[in-house]
Write a structure and sequence with these properties.
about 280 residues; six-stranded mixed β-sheet; 9 strands; about 50% helix; binds ligand LMJFFPRB; mitochondrion; delta(3)-delta(2)-enoyl-CoA isomerase activity; acetylation; Enoyl-CoA_hydra/iso
């Protein structure tokens, strides 16, 4: 195809498919890059972007909008200069109200299914720590660029909890079975350079601007690839994991609720919360 025809087609698709975003997001900034029409979704829930029901619901909504508008791609990043996201909001799991917990877990499942299975390409510009649920969101994306000197990993066992099977499958889609087993059983958090060595991230960056530049460059790889061929291929690789959760969705919610409310698990969470608070006190 001639370059001029390509650019005409691109311009036409930009005009007809311009995504329309709600300006009502409280915990997200959503912006579209005029040069390539890639949407950057910035998590903005201080202090640590912990994923509570509100934030998860907004992420779910923005993913629906992007799919509807046939977006050419999305970058996920954070407004914080040291935390991408601290993972699930522990307060949603500590002494939970059962009905609220079910909604919370349902929203998390929604986000996972939409992000892991998105027809459009996705990249994470990881500009801070990404433990547990933060690592999950990053792994759902197809490409990860991470700023140096931060941590990423599924550290659930350190909290006395267990990463659900669909978290595990997401890691297995990213790094080897052997590395997944070692990482999960020990609750390992990888430093940026260690994450690169094991393939948990694809590129390192010096700072957020560099991470965004590298993440934007990832989408150039798809300029000559028909989106439908891309989307079918991604679905062939990831679709069965999503179908498994769809089939077991209710059971997954019930099992998680009954495990999380066990006294031993609650004690573990309390202990972990106290550690987080003490860290602050001993630093002061
Ligand atoms: C045996 C069977 C069990 C089965 C159980 C069922 C299965 C359930 C699966 C559940 C899966 C869960 C996945 C998760 O995501 S769990 C969350 C894991 N997250 C973490 O471990 C991260 C904890 N946070 C940190 O390590 C650090 O905060 C940070 C991200 C490195 C940032 O450090 P920084 O120094 O900048 O900030 P502070 O530590 O001072 O934190 C600022 C305040 O934010 C509060 N905080 C931190 N993380 C969370 C969180 N995840 N949820 C809620 N609140 C959080 C922290 O306490 C500070 O609060 P304060 O200002 O009030 O003191």
């Amino acid at each position: 195809m001639m370059a001029s025809t390509r650019s005409l087609l691109r311009t036409k698709s930009l005009i007809s498919n311009l995504p329309r975003f709600s300006s009502n997001y409280k915990c997200l900034d959503v912006s579209v890059n005029n040069d390539n029409n890639i949407t950057t979704v910035t998590l903005k829930r201080p202090p640590v972007n912990s994923l509570n029901l509100d934030l998860l619901s907004e992420i779910s909504d923005v993913l629906t909008d992007l799919k509807k508008s046939k977006s050419p791609g999305m970058i996920l990043t954070s407004s914080s200069d040291k935390v991408f996201t601290a993972g699930l909001d522990i307060m949603e799991m500590h002494k939970p109200d059962p009905e609220r917990f079910k909604q919370f877990w349902y929203a998390l499942q929604d986000v996972w299914m939409k992000l892991y299975g998105s027809p459009f390409p996705t990249a994470a510009a990881i500009n801070g720590h990404a433990p547990a649920g933060g690592c999950l969101l990053a792994m759902c994306c197809e490409y990860r660029v991470m700023v140096q000197n931060f941590n990423i990993g599924l550290n659930e066992t350190q909290l006395g909890i267990v990463a659900p099977i669909w978290f595990i499958k997401t890691m297995l889609n990213t790094i080897s079975i052997r590395d997944t087993e070692l990482a999960l059983t020990t609750g390992r958090l990888f430093k940026t350079d260690e994450a690169l060595a094991v393939g948990l991230i694809d590129e390192m960056a010096t700072d957020k601007a560099d991470a965004l530049k590298k993440a934007n460059a990832f989408f150039e790889r798809f300029e000559m690839i028909p989106p439908i061929a891309r989307a079918y291929t991604k679905d062939s690789l990831r679709g069965s994991d999503i179908e498994d959760l769809k089939k077991n969705r209710e059971k997954d919610i019930q099992t998680t609720l009954s495990l999380i409310t066990q006294p031993k698990v609650q004690q573990g969470l309390e202990f972990y919360l106290a550690l987080l608070k003490n860290k602050k006190e001993s630093a002061a």
